[in-house]
TrEMBL record:
PROSITE patterns linked: HTH_CROC1
Protein name (Swiss-Prot/TrEMBL): Short-chain fatty acyl-CoA regulator family protein
Top-level taxon of the source organism: Bacteria
Transmembrane segments: none
Keywords (A to Z) from UniProt: DNA-binding, Transcription, Transcription regulation
Gene3D superfamilies referenced in this protein's UniProt entry, alphabetically: lambda repressor-like DNA-binding domains
Parts forming coiled coils: none
Organism: Chelativorans composti
Length: 474
């Protein structure tokens, strides 16, 4: 059987241009003449096995990428143009081949656009079925969105992924970062995958935290990120490459219902893996116990942000060596709950987190201050909560900065193991602040913070009496 010849002129030209080389300079490095390289770039000569090996050695090019980069995008383009809306636009496949070869970035963008179009069409189809089934309903229960599905699945399970922890430990041994993980990651990306890392100004990359250009093998980070956040984005990209199989296996185990949900879960698990790499399990847990879970000290020791250290505390659930089972919630100014997680899953039924009396909702009045508090639920269960604001990316003068607040909590019985337990007065330990899971589920009377009436009690039974709450009940 005659082997298929490989014509990859556009790809070779793209490699040369991305590295700022002339044809003469590249030809010299490959040991061929400039005229022969010119013929290769014009697809008038195929690549030889020796030349493919030379490209892999000199420019860290994956041979499979040279042979098959167009194949994947070509099959995806076939799917796009097989849609009834576009099926009559192309007379033959040769234009698809030329498009995939000459403009791979544009081809990828077209595939992404088509994928978004298909997923949006599926959502509208689901919504149409709901409307058809409830034609007279005044309100419609919108189908669960992929983001909601991922959030619900991750909140309901322990925030611990043993396989990712093991992969992160193995990766850390390979990197051997000493005291500079950022430099070790940059070196690994460059040496193993030919990926250069650059920090770009806001004017060049105004909307993205991180962007990897797979054609020029460059990873771009925004200068708006703090050093700790830049390190996390760097670690996320490295983990997506190194731990691809482990992350895919964990996503499969979540049993999500759509491709969009799986993509979102992939990002969440990559961030988990990055935290595991930045704060190795054993070292972080040992430091946490020695420092009595002082989050500021942990953040300084591991050169991470307060938010990153707090998030890592919710993952210390290894069976043979577990830490305090913390749970976490993040909200914005409007009280929207952005994310929730816990070492044993977020305690929806036991804690809830929607009570306006919780300090996390008042933390915006005291930015940057940790507010420890003992709280008690209606059933008598007590928790230690730590609330603090965290700032988002650096903003320009005319941009309102992003500020959120996080609540870190655990059962009050663990308070003595933390540095924050000593900050609580004896009175607050003996009589914690009464809170509820949510106003709709709380029957505490006379609550000045009540925002909604309880679903379990009738209102306004006595016209001669008014209480301090906006929703009075007896």
């Amino acid at each position: 059987m005659i082997a298929q010849k490989i014509f990859a002129g556009a790809r070779i030209r793209r490699i040369r241009v991305s590295k700022g080389l002339t044809q003469t300079a590249m030809a010299e490095a490959l040991g061929i003449s400039p005229s022969y390289l010119n013929l290769i770039e014009r697809n008038q000569r195929p690549l030889t096995v020796q030349l493919i090996l030379k490209l892999a050695s000199v420019y860290k090019v994956d041979p499979e990428e040279l042979h098959g980069e167009g194949a994947a995008s070509l099959s995806q383009l076939r799917e796009v143009f097989a849609d009834p809306l576009l099926s009559g636009e192309l007379p033959g496949e040769h234009e698809l081949v030329e498009f995939a070869e000459a403009a791979p970035n544009a081809a990828t963008a077209l595939v992404k656009l088509y994928r978004a179009y298909r997923e949006q069409a599926e959502r509208l189809s689901d919504l149409s079925e709901v409307i058809a089934a409830n034609p007279g309903a005044s309100t419609i229960a919108v189908p669960r969105l992929p983001a909601n599905e991922v959030r619900d699945v991750l909140e309901a399970r322990p925030n611990h992924f043993a396989s990712l922890e093991e992969e992160a430990e193995a990766f850390g041994r390979i990197l051997s970062p000493q005291d500079d993980l950022s430099a070790a990651l940059r070196h690994w990306l460059q040496q193993e995958h030919g990926i250069a890392v650059r920090v770009l100004p806001v004017s060049v990359m105004p909307n993205w935290r991180r962007r990897y250009d797979r054609h020029s093998h460059r990873l771009f980070l925004s200068e708006r990120l703090s050093p700790a956040d830049q390190l996390r984005e760097l670690a996320i990209e490295a983990c997506l490459i190194r731990m691809r199989a482990a992350i895919a296996a964990e996503i499969d185990a979540l049993r999500l219902s759509s491709d969009e949900a799986r993509r979102l879960a992939r990002f969440e698990l990559a961030r988990y893996a990055a935290h595991a790499l930045m704060m190795p399990y054993a070292a972080f847990l040992n430091a946490a116990e020695r420092q009595r879970y002082d989050i500021d000290v942990l953040a300084a020791r591991f050169r991470v942000s307060f938010e990153q250290a707090a998030t890592r505390l919710t993952t210390l659930a290894r069976e043979e060596r577990a830490g305090i089972p913390f749970f976490m919630m993040e909200i914005d100014h409007a009280g929207n709950r952005l994310r929730r997680a816990g070492a044993e899953g977020f305690p929806h039924a036991r804690f809830g987190g929607a009570c306006p009396r919780l300090a996390v909702y008042a933390a915006f009045a005291e930015p940057g201050r940790i507010i420890p508090e003992a709280v008690q639920m209606p059933d008598g269960e007590m928790f230690l909560t730590l609330s603090r604001t965290v700032d988002g990316p650096y903003a320009g003068f005319e941009v309102r900065p992003r500020r959120t607040a996080i609540l870190l909590g655990c059962e009050l019985s663990y308070a003595g193991q933390t540095v924050y337990g000593g900050a609580l007065s004896q009175a607050s330990l003996e009589a914690p602040l009464p809170v509820g899971r949510a106003c709709r589920l709380c029957e505490r009377q006379g609550c000045l913070s009540r925002a909604e009436p309880p679903v379990t009690r009738p209102l306004g039974l006595d016209e001669m009496v008014t209480g301090f709450s906006a929703f009075d009940f007896q």
